[in-house]
Write a structure and sequence with these properties.
Blueprint: H1 2-42, H2 46-52, H3 57-66, H4 85-94, H5 102-113, H6 116-121, H7 124-136, E1 141-144, E2 160-164, E3 167-178, E4 185-191, E5 201-207, E6 213-218, E7 229-240, H8 251-287, E8 289-290, E9 293-294, H9 299-326, H10 333-357, H11 368-375, H12 386-397
Parallel strand pairs: 1-4
Antiparallel strand pairs: 2-3, 3-7, 4-5, 6-7, 8-9
Helix pairs in contact: 4-8, 5-8, 8-9, 8-10, 9-10, 10-11, 10-12
Amino acid sequence: QASVLTTKLLPPLLHTMLTFISLSIIFLLMRLLLFQIIDQEINPHVDKWEEEGMFPAHKIFKVLGNAGFLGVSKPVEYGGLGLDFSYSLAVAEELGNIDCGGIPMAIGVQSDMATPALARFGSDELKKEFLQPSIAGDLVACLGVSEVGAGSDVASIKTKAVRDGDEYVITGGKMWTTSGAQADWMCLLANTSEGLPHKNKSLICLPMNLPGVHVARKIDKIGMKSSDTAEVFFDDVRVPCKNVIGQEGMGFTYQMLQFQEERLWGVANILTMMERVIQETIGYTRQRKIFGLPVLYHQTVHFRLAELQTEVELLRALLHQATALYIRGNDVTKMASMAKLKAGRLARELGDSCLQYWGGMGFTSDVLVSRFYRDSRLMSIGAGADEVMLSIICKYMDTLPRK
């Protein structure tokens, strides 16, 4: 009986082992390739792009698209690799080796923030027109959700898409649009009816070259400088009704699902940069002396760095647990919100502590820690502010006041 049982179990077990080994080898090769791209195609130019306030998205995305990094978890039939979302997060962690926060953020918008709903709910026609070339790096995507009067409160957006025959006529505007000055298309959230705010919205694939689409300005920011951020207005823009992603009126729900991936991606991306800042701070404080001793050798310094490293590892464990549940089909809204909340607050704490140990040098623009200090501040604001994350967590804990 034992030999029969072994004979039956061994083939699937071997298949599982071989699959795991194959995927591990593939992922290792992918990480090496991505590190090479970062080292050769991106980091040598980061300082220049930071000064210019924009990086060449079409050029960089084409390089990444050719290597398969813009569709890691997207369907194979549209050019993706067909892997689960954990591989996207592994890529996000590796992108933390880029010497700024703006470029990884723009890559994340392209791969895991503007396209998940399209990949999951969009028609075959829309996927071929917008998803496939975005995965290939031929089109730059942006996400149009936030407005001047509606950021984290997504339900209160005012942009309208009014049906006129087989078209929508879109009026309104979007704010804080990452890659908005360069994008070829926008995943736009707009009100398509007068119903309840959670049931009257739709996601629409909007080509940015249509008449009536106006990129009003490229916004100057305190951080994330190499990523262009635009304010966009829509003046009676006509879009075919077939450009709606999935069902009309389901846009709010689809966007909330996209937010799960966006928030997990953001946490994964900032982990590596936090580790790099700690390591660079160790290196600098080992060389810099004060009162006859390296700064690092003062107990208050190396104890503080040990605490910060511990916090990073705790955040990583939370991220990996949430990801494991997510790829098994669970709703991880609460855990993703917890991870994002913790990541934003830890980034601020870590950036401030490490910059302090760099002394006057930390107050210059010449070192990674000062750039991280500026860039990482967005983590507590974008994709839902800290206060919104707390509200979501409270909702899932059932601690909010009952009406």
